[in-house]
């Protein structure tokens, strides 16, 4: 007791040591329910930072800076009348309580160097969007003054006027061969063919060249890849097993075809989000919905409830990132600290997806479905026979699979599915995949050798006869009625959250949700809202992404972050004008891209030495005082090695192929855990998170792979041979036309000439020469 | 403008950074702006650093703390019974929550001046007991391997974030001009769970990712040409490449990325010479090789890896990660006796040898050595003689970095199921590693999609108990 008193007296003078006393006490007694560490913020309160205490929870601030002795935290731990006692179950041990009392009375100082949590930033939103929040530029309608921009000249006018305002001007036009190389890569991801380069040199008709490239089937391969980056496309599960997804490629092919056919972006988005609800008779819908199946999946996760929730949250996050350009993920656990996005908004968006169930092996067309049905009829008897044989072993397999789950999930699996609530059915389904896994592998787990062999034989026979059906991984809904996701608040029952649009955009009303026979109609409403005529964000975000792909930097530089931490547009009028033109033109992307690449802004030389001032004050070329330049993308590097040697197989579409195949890189199997080393080295997207822009790096691995890697070696040899055997009089010209799609510059020609002169008769001469060109910067960079 | 002056655009500091596994000039500018510091060269951290580099010995699959560093007499007393209800319930990977408790068959002794308990599976490491800080109270969020390995490497159970080694390389830069700054070695040909994303750079530039080097054959991908190209051909090709690049650079003298590219091409030539030498063990004395157990079949493999790790540490590679049991081989769901006897036997002498060698060469003072897996194992049995995954409480140890050894930090409950005292989440553990390297985990920042991202995801704090 003496000891306690002593502390109390001392406490008035000096606060307890934060790191040695306060923090361990908070951690031991409070963090369990109120910290980022545990992911709990009961009552909306976290006590793991000064900010958390100051902003407080649902009941207001936890500490009172003016009157520390009135701090709710203090009253709570003293268990005073009228205040929720904390911790709820049991009073703090006296020493712990005294530490916290002394600390709160001293003003609850939180030393910056404790480093427990980020520094205080901004007042909490407390679930409210203020009028000021609504003024953020990205949420405004298109500026009424912004005139529709749909042609190259209008783009140039905008860019010129912003250059002029700075006293700057445009660079001279790029050399026409450099322009052709640039635009051919930008539109198809490939170098110009020798014949194309020659034809263009004779008749440099840019408009015709652009039309030819836009009509090429390789356009969709280049631009589809950009979409696949955004939606984290991959063909495997991720996690440890990283199971291959043999039908995922259908989605990839659908994306490529959509770009090739210039599907309007609004429809493109709608089919991916709600094709089943909006165009149920369109077989494309099934495949487009593959978008909702691109997340990772862990085949042996036993906490199926959390697993399903994580799957829905992943879809929510990606959709907000891709379609809205907003990082909504922060709002999963609390109102967004920076942007006007509420926790409720997050769960309201998630609620649109709350009816989803996964469907595998769905026939992709009516004809295919009929074929499947016929086959099933034809084999019904034998399959029944097999089922009878398997039944006892399936029972064992079920029990074994079931035993791995926690009790509440075991109970769920024991209940007939039709008796479950919609939300329970979804969890049941995801858990049942693990049971199905055991059934699928039945013969590998059976101990009875005789029965095993019999089953194995029958299974193999059936399998051998089974034709290959065209199927897809897709989604449907658990039924017409679905359960809303819930958010827990202190002292209240978890609150179900209905589908709704972000509060900051609620002036754009949500179309009525029309319930379908077997589907909630929620995703259809979301898709319609996103692509509605008044939604300013979705088309703006896409127009900006296209601009970024063409010019290197977005008009909004942070292409997937349009919140308050993102950058504001460099040319707001142009952005709105292009968006208006895009909408007026029926959300078509090819005309938009065409206008950009046909512009003189795009056609400028990327090299400019006459005006260091522009370079110094705008090294990123945001204001476009020179033409765009960039390194080749990973796929372009690999594809060009094949293309230069004329060994590229230009087949469009089909199942993924192994990395030795001389196909375009977009058709390589995409396994999340085993990436192609060359593509990975050159910064290809990893298929785990949405990738709005790739970060180009310079690494030694890149250099070494181009210098000594097997692909660079084999293609250099093939290219060398091609040059020698082509019978071209001027081999140097032929080499540059093949490797770079342009003629050599005089200094390049003379460098090669000198190198070749000394060993022209050497068998390896042209192999080595070709290799030097293929690892050179002239190959790797577009001017 | 000549090539030389184009190169001068890269300052000496930037040049060094470029060497550290490569670096994009574009990203360099972006990052300097992001972090408010210039991270493009080896640079000090925020705090006083106690270590300059890390050697992380990753026992993949989850070694049993109950049979190595965390003895539980009660476990042997209750063996065969169910987990008493007072210990609460857990959701396990293989449904073993109600399985009978499994006794540890190990003989335990206290070792060193500190009296550290180490089991008879690790007699050589036991000899280094006074170098070790055994942390018995680590916990993580993952009941399965993929998520666990991912979290121990990147802080989160879901893929996509930068690995700890990437954050360290970003935070401190690299001090070796000729080698990657973050190197990974794995035993055997099996792939580590999750593959290369364990040492990936996530949303940061690829320049910060780990480079896996092979312990046999060509060290780096593409380091050696598939065909042996005669050196005069190589030279000729190199000369032509130089000419072409000079011609190209002369047209675009202001392009810093191109300058970095040329620098990296020159570095590649140097690395072709330096990397094989760095891991070439032929000139190590028989005594050294014996110290690491390279002379014995059972220990030769990991012994070589540990010796390579020392050589890389000597060459100032910043972050060196060694995987033992790649492909979850420590995952002893059944017959833990056989499984762990083999893996402990294969690593015990190499690891002890590494500590001894680092110490005698004066390297242990500024090298942080870390040992452990993605989780520990349950007191409950599985399949009669194995143990399930235990993320609720397990052991990692640290050595070197000026840490006071011969002690334990934290405890698990009486059956070793959950961490109890000094509970240390992976985030805390990572924050501690960063603090030892002089980095404040809240101030290593990377702007990603508008959010300031930190290595420990805004959580965790350095363990004062470890740092003490």
Care to describe what's here?
The complex is a heterodimer of chains A (783) and B (468). Chain A is mainly alpha-helical and 783 residues long. Among the domains of chain A are: 2-114, no CATH class; 230-476 and 495-504, no CATH class; 707-782. Chain A is built from 34 helices and eight strands. In chain A, helix 9 packs antiparallel against helix 25 (589-598) and helix 30 packs across helix 33 (765-774). Chain A is globular, with a radius of gyration of 31 Å. The model of chain A is unreliable at 1-13 and 114-122 (pLDDT under 50). Chain B has 468 residues and is an alpha/beta fold. Helices cover 35% and strands 16% of the residues of chain B. The model of chain B is unreliable at 1-41 (pLDDT under 50). In chain B, the strands form five sheets. In chain B, strands 1, 4, 5, 6, 7, 8, 11, 12 and 15 form a nine-stranded mixed beta sheet that branches. Chain B has one domain: Alkaline Phosphatase, subunit A, CATH 3.40.720. Chain B is built from 14 helices and 17 strands. Chain B is globular and about 80 Å long. Chain B has helices spanning 3-8, 12-19, 25-35, 73-78, 123-127, 145-154, 164-172, 231-251, 256-278, 286-291, 297-314, 336-360, 426-436, 464-467, and strands at 53-59, 108-111, 116-119, 132-139, 182-186, 211-212, 319-324, 367-372, 376-382, 386-390, 394-400, 407-409, 411-412, 419-421, 424-425, 446-448, 451-453. The interface between A and B is large, with 95 and 97 residues.
- Based on CA inertia axes, which overall geometry of chain B fits? globular
Strand order, biggest sheet of chain A?
A: 1-2
Main β-sheet of chain B: number of strands, strand sense, barrel status?
9 strands, mixed
Q: Main beta sheet of chain A: strand number and arrangement?
A: 2 strands, antiparallel
N-end to C-end Cα span of chain B: 56 Å
Strand content of chain B: 15-25%
Helix content of chain B: 25-40%
Q: Name the overall outline of chain A.
A: globular
Judged by helices, strands and strand pairing, the structural class of chain A is mainly alpha
Percent helix of chain A, as a range, is 40-55%
Number of domain modules of chain B: 1
Query: What's the level 1 CATH class of chain B?
Result: Alpha Beta
* Structure annotation, total helices of chain B: 14
- Write down the Rg of chain B: 23 Å
Low-confidence segments of chain A: 1-13, 114-122
What's the β-strand tally of chain A? Answer: 8
Q: Which chains have the largest interface?
A: A-B, 95 and 97 residues
């Amino acid at each position: 007791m003496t000891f306690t008193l002593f502390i109390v007296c001392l406490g008035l003078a000096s606060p307890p040591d934060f790191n040695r006393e306060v923090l361990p006490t908070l951690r031991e007694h409070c963090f369990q329910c109120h910290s980022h560490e545990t992911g709990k913020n009961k009552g909306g309160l976290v006590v793991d930072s000064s900010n958390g205490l100051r902003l407080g929870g649902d009941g207001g601030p936890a500490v009172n800076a003016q009157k520390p002795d009135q701090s709710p935290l203090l009253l709570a731990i003293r268990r005073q009348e009228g205040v929720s006692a904390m911790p709820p179950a049991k009073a703090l041990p006296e020493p712990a309580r005294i530490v916290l009392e002394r600390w709160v009375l001293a003003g609850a100082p939180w030393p910056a160097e404790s480093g427990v949590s980020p520094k205080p930033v901004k007042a909490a939103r407390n679930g409210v969007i203020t009028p000021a929040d609504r003024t953020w530029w990205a949420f405004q309608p298109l500026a009424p003054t912004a005139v529709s921009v749909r042609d190259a000249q209008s783009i140039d006018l905008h860019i010129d006027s912003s250059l002029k305002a700075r006293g700057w001007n445009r660079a001279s036009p790029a050399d026409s061969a450099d322009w052709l190389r640039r635009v051919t890569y930008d539109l198809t991801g490939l170098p110009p063919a020798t014949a194309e380069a020659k034809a263009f040199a004779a008749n440099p008709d840019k408009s015709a060249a652009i039309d030819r490239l836009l009509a090429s089937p390789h356009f969709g391969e280049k631009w589809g890849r950009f979409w696949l980056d955004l939606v984290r496309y991959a063909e495997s599960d991720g996690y440890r097993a990283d199971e291959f997804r043999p039908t995922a490629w259908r989605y990839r092919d659908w994306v490529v075809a959509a770009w090739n056919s210039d599907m309007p972006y609004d429809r493109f988005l709608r089919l991916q989000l709600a094709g089943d609800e909006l165009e149920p008779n369109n077989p494309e819908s099934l495949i487009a919905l593959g978008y909702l199946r691109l997340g990772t999946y862990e085949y042996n996760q036993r906490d199926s409830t959390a697993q399903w929730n994580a799957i829905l949250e992943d879809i929510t996050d990606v959709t907000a990132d891709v379609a809205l350009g907003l990082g909504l993920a922060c709002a999963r656990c609390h109102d967004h600290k920076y942007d006007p996005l509420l926790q409720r908004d997050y769960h309201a968006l998630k609620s649109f997806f709350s009816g989803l169930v996964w469907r595998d092996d769905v026939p992709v067309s009516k004809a295919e479905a009929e074929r499947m049905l016929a086959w099933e009829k034809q084999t019904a008897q034998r399959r029944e026979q097999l089922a009878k044989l398997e039944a006892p072993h399936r029972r064992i397999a079920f029990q074994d699979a079931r035993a791995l789950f926690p009790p509440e999930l075991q109970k769920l699996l024991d209940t007939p599915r039709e008796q479950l609530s919609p939300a329970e059915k979804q969890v049941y389904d995801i858990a049942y995949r693990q049971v199905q896994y055991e059934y699928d592998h039945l013969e590998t787990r059976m101990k009875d050798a005789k029965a095993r062999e019999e089953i194995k034989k029958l299974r193999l026979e059936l399998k051998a006869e089974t034709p290959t059906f065209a199927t897809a991984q897709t989604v449907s809904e658990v039924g017409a009625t679905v359960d809303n996701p819930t958010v827990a608040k202190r002292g209240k029952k978890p609150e179900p959250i209905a589908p709704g649009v972000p509060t900051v955009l609620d002036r754009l009303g949500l179309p009525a949700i029309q319930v379908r026979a077997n589907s909630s109609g929620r995703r259809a409403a979301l898709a319609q809202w996103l692509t509605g005529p008044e939604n300013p964000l979705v088309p703006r975000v896409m127009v900006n992404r296209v601009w970024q792909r063409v010019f290197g930097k977005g008009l909004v530089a942070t292409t997937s972050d349009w919140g308050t931490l993102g950058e504001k547009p460099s040319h707001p009028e142009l952005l709105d004008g292009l968006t208006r033109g895009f909408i007026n033109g029926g959300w078509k992307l090819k005309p938009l891209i065409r206008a950009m690449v046909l512009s003189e802004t795009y056609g400028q030389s990327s090299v400019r030495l006459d005006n260091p001032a522009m370079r110094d004050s705008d090294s990123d070329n945001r204001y476009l005082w020179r033409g765009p330049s960039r390194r080749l993308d990973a796929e372009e590097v690999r594809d060009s090695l094949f293309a230069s040697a004329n060994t590229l197989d230009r087949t469009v579409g089909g199942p993924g192929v192994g990395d030795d195949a001389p196909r375009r890189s977009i058709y390589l199997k995409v396994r999340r855990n085993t990436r192609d080393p060359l593509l990975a080295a050159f910064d290809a997207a990893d298929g785990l998170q949405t990738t709005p822009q790739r970060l180009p790096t310079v690494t030694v691995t890149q250099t070494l792979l181009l210098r000594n890697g097997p692909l660079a070696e084999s293609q250099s040899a093939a290219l060398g041979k091609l040059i020698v055997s082509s019978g071209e009089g001027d081999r140097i010209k032929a080499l540059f036309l093949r490797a770079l799609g342009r003629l050599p510059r005089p200094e390049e020609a003379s460098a090669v000439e000198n190198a070749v002169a000394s060993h022209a008769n050497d068998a390896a001469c042209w192999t080595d020469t070709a290799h030097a060109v293929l690892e050179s910067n002239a190959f790797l960079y577009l001017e | 403008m000549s090539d030389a002056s184009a190169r001068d655009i890269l300052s000496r500091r930037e040049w060094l950074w470029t060497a550290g596994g490569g670096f994009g000039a574009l990203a360099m500018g972006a990052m300097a702006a992001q972090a408010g510091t210039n991270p493009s060269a080896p640079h000090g951290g925020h705090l006083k650093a106690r270590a300059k580099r890390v050697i992380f010995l990753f026992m993949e699959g989850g070694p049993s703390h109950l049979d190595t560093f965390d003895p539980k007499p009660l476990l042997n007393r209750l063996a065969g019974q169910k987990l008493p209800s007072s210990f609460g319930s857990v959701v396990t990977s293989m449904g073993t929550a109600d399985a009978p408790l499994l006794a540890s068959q190990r003989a335990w002794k206290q070792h060193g001046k500190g009296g550290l308990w180490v089991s008879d599976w690790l007699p050589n490491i036991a000899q280094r007991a006074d170098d070790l800080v055994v942390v018995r109270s680590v916990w993580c969020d993952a009941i399965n391997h993929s998520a666990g390995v991912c979290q121990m490497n990147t802080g989160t159970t879901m893929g996509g974030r930068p690995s700890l080694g990437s954050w360290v390389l970003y935070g401190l830069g690299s001090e070796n001009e000729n080698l990657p700054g973050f190197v990974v070695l794995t035993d055997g040909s099996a792939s580590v769970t999750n593959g290369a994303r364990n040492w990936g750079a996530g949303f940061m530039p690829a320049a910060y990712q780990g480079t896996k080097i092979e312990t046999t054959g060509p060290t780096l991908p593409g380091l050696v040409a598939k065909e042996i190209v005669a050196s005069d051909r190589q030279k000729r090709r190199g000369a032509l490449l130089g000419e072409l690049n000079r011609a190209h650079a002369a047209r675009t003298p202001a392009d810093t990325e191109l300058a970095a590219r040329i620098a990296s091409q020159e570095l590649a030539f140097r690395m072709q010479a330096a990397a094989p030498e760095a891991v070439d063990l032929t000139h190590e004395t028989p005594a050294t090789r014996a110290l690491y157990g390279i002379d014995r079949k059972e220990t030769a493999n990991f012994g070589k890896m540990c010796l390579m790790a020392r050589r890389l540490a000597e060459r100032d590679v910043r972050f060196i990660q060694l995987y033992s049991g790649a492909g979850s081989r420590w995952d002893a769901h059944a017959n833990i006796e056989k499984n762990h006897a083999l893996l402990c036997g294969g690593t015990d002498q190499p690891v002890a040898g590494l500590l001894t060698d680092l110490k005698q060469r004066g390297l242990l003072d500024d090298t942080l050595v870390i040992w452990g897996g993605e989780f520990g194992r349950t007191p409950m049995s599985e399949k009669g003689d194995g143990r399930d995954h235990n993320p609720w409480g397990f052991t990692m140890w640290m050595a070197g970095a000026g840490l006071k050894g011969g002690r334990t930090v934290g405890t698990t409950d009486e059956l070793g199921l959950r961490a109890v005292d000094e509970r240390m989440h992976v985030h805390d553990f990572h924050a501690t590693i960063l603090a030892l390297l002089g980095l404040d985990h809240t101030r290593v920042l990377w702007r990603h999609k508008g959010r300031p991202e930190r290595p420990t995801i805004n959580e965790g704090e350095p363990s004062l108990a470890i740092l003490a």
